[in-house]
Design brief:
By secondary structure, this protein is an alpha/beta fold. The protein has three domains: 99 residues, Rossmann fold, CATH 3.40.50.720; 202 residues, UDP-N-acetylmuramoyl-L-alanine:D-glutamate ligase (3-Layer(aba) Sandwich); 136 residues, Protein-Tyrosine Phosphatase, Chain A. The chain is 33% helix and 20% strand. It is built from 16 helices and 20 strands. The strands form four sheets. A six-stranded parallel beta sheet has the order 7-8-6-9-10-11, with helices on both faces. The model has no long low-confidence stretch (mean pLDDT 92).
Amino acid sequence: MDIHHRATIDIKDKSISVIGLGLSGSAAAKLAHYAGARVFVSDPGTSLDINMRADEMMQMNISVETGMHSDRINEADLWIVSPGVPKDADIILQAQEKNIPIVGEIEFASWFTESPIIAVTGSNGKTTTVNVLVEMCQSENVRGTLAGNVGIPFSSSVLEEMKSPEPKTVYVLEISSFQMEFIHHFHPKIAIYTNISPDHLNRHGTMDEYIAMKMRMVENQTKKDFIVYNMDDPLLTMALKDHPATMTPFSMVRADMTFRLQTNSIYGTNGSPLIAVQDLILPGPHNLSNILAASTAAHLMGISDQRIAKIMGSFPGVEHRLEYVSAIDDVQYINDSKATNLDAVLVALESFEQPLILILGGQNKGADFRLLLPHIESSHVRLIISYGESGGEIVTALGDAVRSVQVTDLKSAVTSAQSLAVPGDVVLLSPGCASFDQFENFEERGAQFKTWINDLENKK
């Protein structure tokens, strides 16, 4: 099957293997089935979620196997792979030897829509940026639709559009580096880069490889397209310097931007103050940067300063990202489960003035916890509670800098935090690690944390 020229791609009656039966895999399978392909879905797992999705596939007359990858996956004109399958996995290398074309779910879905795409990536801030931006992109002429790495597969949204076309659709996609490993035609009208910092090095190996994957998002852009990027990030500025697209940077310090920050106000495109920083609901300088990124892209989509300012002043934040949960006995509990790398932890530490009890732990993604030392010593952290697979590693790296306690799991960490907190403290779950040692994903981790905190409150 020739996938090199998008205009000639026709999957009707083609055999397609979908590798992975997660959210994106099952959505891609449904889209391919709707477009007339003969679909076979394969997942080596046997979890309850996978089995439920497998039942759904069978009810739609889509062939499926679980608990293994049989040779049938190779009887295909095309593979669609889930982002959880790395490009150096054995089955990927074997498929490449057989010259089977391989695409990711984001790439595949993009074949079936002509609606403009705003793609957002970066090491931190993606989720807040896409959520702010999709709220801004609601007007007479624009209907922002959120999808991608936020629990809403792009394939699901595109399938909806195919069934019920909406000519004003603009897709706002959160994109992870994993989703860019198999790109051919993916072409965002506007690409947003929030920042670049070491992340997922256990998957990508080196920082150069990680940056290269992030840059794949814009490899098909031309001078008619736009890149909105953080000019305060030297790594980003360097990586993008020779790109042909139209550069529209944002900055927390420079005045010559579409929206500028000055004397504690954000100024609009006409040079007048739009909103005072104190009137933003979201805490922390990192969120200010995310708001500037979203506003710049919204302006490029023709959204008025008035609409942009309205959302700036009303957007409450994103679940699992510095999310206020409760205050019990004058102790605040904050859910930052989405902080799966050390940079996100640093952002969280900078967002609070109060004494902090920091809960760290989970499955380490290759991070060196010693990098937190200078920040912990200069911040308000008075106690670290470590848990999970990386608990011992965290204590070894940070134990001398601050009082630390190691426990087995997150529930024990919550119990310890509650017993050790004093009025005025903030208990901050900002794990700095993946959740997979104990949970399905960071959302489940954050939801469980909130449940335990609410249980504490109800016992009062």
